[in-house]
Amino acid sequence: MSTDTTDLTRLATPPTFQSVSGARKAKNLTATVLVSLAFAIAVIPLVWVLYTVLQRGFPVILNADWWQKSLSGLLSRQTGGGVYHAIYGTLVQGLVCGVISVPIGLFVAVYLVEYGGRSRLSKATTFMVDILTGVPSIVAALFVYSLWITTFGFGRSGFAVSLALVLLMVPVIVRTTEEMLKIVPDELREASYALGIPKWKTIVKIVIPTALSGILTGVMLALARVMGETAPVLVLAAYAPYINYNLFDGPMASLPLLMTSERNNPTDAGFDRIWGAAITLVLIITLFNLLATVISRWLAPKTK
Amino acid sequence: MAKRIDVKDLNLFYGKFHAVQQVSLSVPPRNVTAFIGPSGCGKSTVLRSLNRMHEVAPGARVEGTVQLDGEDIYASTVDPVQVRRTIGMVFQRPNPFPTMSIRDNVVAGLKLAGVKNKKQLDEVAERSLRGANLWNEVKDRMDRPGGGLSGGQQQRLCIARAIAVQPDVLLMDEPCSALDPISTLAIEDLITELKKEYTIVIVTHNMQQAARVSDQTAFFNLLGVGQPGQLIEVDDTEKIFSNPTQKATEDYISGRFG
């Protein structure tokens, strides 16, 4: 309280509520500007990339041949043909990787959350998974190269690519599944135990179904991510402009590989192929992300 | 069906922490026993040890014996899964399985134990829901998710789920603490009804509830922070509430502490 007795307009007691102080208004303004600026900086390149890819690639993919034919027999300056061979390679390498990674990742996560507790093995596993998450894709590719090709003597192939992608995908799946299993309340496990349901059945029938939508979302996102990986395909598979259905033998194209190999092609046809492949890859990954959203909506526990 | 429980020299631990010390009491069949006492005195811990749920917590340990009709449920040859099938439990917060419909929630215990006969499951679902006084409210929406019911309905759904596997004993851990008075009344009526077939042990913070529903009351207390909880006395509910032997019981019941 002020001791100034000459101020007769002063209220006997000050009002409880005052207007927002100037300092706070200024701080609010600064924060708003900073946040909006950061948002703009993050979004502008994203929109730009999407715009460029769409503008240059969209006319190319409108041709039905693009989705049905390969580049087999075409000269580098010849337009026409398609990237069916590369789409096939990307999808098959990605799916085979998924088929191997999902069970491994799921089992590891179930061990960590339901059985490991604070045991030494569980701590060591978490640590290794953390490290694996940060391994650059080129390292994974070179590791598979030295093991699968140099040591075991297999040739470069689509399957070798899948193996490298497994190394990249497993830690991601372990992480997301672990998080999803952790948020399943213990009360559900206890409710199940109290009904005389054994632990393994509780996990299979109660815990995993409750977390399934989140787990599948994580799997789809991980799959979308590894399908765009470039280092493994560069190191582990030779490019082929024709369709190779054999995952285990011979050169096999994939979208990132097609793009890097067409970079040496200075003609307009090469330009079209690169941007076409870029937008095709973006579309495939978008499709997987959309699928993830749909699946998680469909499987999420409902209340109505 | 209903069986008696005899607890002898029960000591319960969480890791190094001695949670409950030297509990001995008997629960006769077709009888409701209430556990009362201040928070942290070990009532719920004792309750959870009666169907071997205590050991689910990491580091939890049990000493002493718990007998169900003379059979030690902690004998080394006994499968805890079978114990839990015989001694059912209802928890403080309603916890229906979120991925299952109302019907599947009720028959979850049987279905996951391998019963596939649809007709049999439907019959059990109806009988259990009638037993839990919920049938009339949900019979037209059996395929809707259990999570869509109100809190009180969910809790009765959980009771239906617990009695669907036809246990001999029903343990209830503060089943009404998350419910409004009307749902509480519905559950209390249900307990009185269920008493005809089941042995019931209920943990409650509500003294009036203990007085209303139970035949026998056990008062737990702890001497100080960090000390193990103890069973102070157990007797007929009427006697505990009118003329308890121990001063601590009288103080607690009359609201002078705790």
Give the fraction of residues assigned to helices of chain A: over 70%
Q: In angstroms, what separates the terminal alpha carbons of chain B?
A: 37 Å
What is the count of DSSP helices of chain B, taking H or I runs of 4+ residues? 11
**How many domains of chain A, as an integer?**
2
The chain-level mean pLDDT of chain B equals: 90
Question: If strands are numbered along the chain, what order do they take across the biggest sheet of chain B?
Answer: 5-4-1-2-10-9-3-8-7-6
Extract low-pLDDT stretches of chain B: none
Alpha-carbon distance between the termini of chain A? 57 Å
Biggest interface and its residues per chain? A-B, 25 and 29 residues
Which outline of chain A best applies?
extended
Characterize the quaternary organization of these chains: heterodimer
What is the CATH superfamily label of the largest domain in chain A? MetI-like
Radius of gyration of chain B: 18 Å
Counting helices, strands and paired strands, the structural category of chain B is alpha/beta
- CATH fold annotation of the largest domain in chain A: MetI-like fold
What low-confidence regions of chain A span 5 or more consecutive residues with pLDDT below 50?
none
Major beta-sheet overview of chain A: none
Element string of chain A (H = helix, E = strand): HHHHHHHHHHH
Give the strand tally of chain B: 10
Order of helices and strands of chain B: EEEHEEHEHHHHHEHEHEEHH
Explain what you see.
The complex is a heterodimer of chains A (304) and B (258). Helices cover 71% and strands 0% of the residues of chain A. Chain A is mainly alpha-helical and 304 residues long. Chain A folds into two domains: 40 residues; 216 residues, MetI-like fold, CATH 1.10.3720. In chain A, α4 crosses α6, α5 crosses α6 and α6 crosses α8. The mean pLDDT of chain A is 90. Chain B has 258 residues and is α/β, with parallel strands linked by helices. Chain B has a domain of 176 residues: Rossmann fold, CATH 3.40.50. The model of chain B has no long low-confidence stretch (mean pLDDT 90). At the A-B interface, α7 and α8 of A face α2, α4 and α7 of B.
